[in-house]
Amino acid sequence: MAKNIIVNNQFNIQPSDINIGPDFEHFFDAFGNMETEVSAYYVVRLCQKKGGWFPFSQAEIEEVYQASGHQDGFIFNRLVDPQAVLAKPAEELEKMATHATRCRGMNPIVASISYAMSHGRPETIKLGGGWIVRDTEGRYHVTDEFVVRCFQSSPARSKAGLSTIS
Q: So which domain of life are we looking at (predicted)?
């Protein structure tokens, strides 16, 4: 599905169609990353408060986030920009474990430097990004794909024809 910015709240799924009730934890399997799914919750919560898919500012999302008792500042966690992650995490972990066994008894800082020098930078890939778009004025806009992913993960009620969108 192509990612299109929702303009003037014109979309058949509205924030009220997404369940983020009192027992809600996060959007399971919506974005492939728990932190991203938790961030999505706060965006949906803000849009429910605003009554639609309207652009929002960093200050507005911060207000919703802080009202939940958080003081550390809201992070979009891959919703806006992609994040570099290990391309082959299992292989990289195996290399680290093998190196750690060889370095037993060595100062941890020296062991870390030794690992970095002998193995170089691990291969990374970029994941996520583009589900929310920041405009030139610093306002954030949700995309249709963001909305569909949240709805499919936690619908408040069914909407005809939307359960099979991927």
A: Bacteria
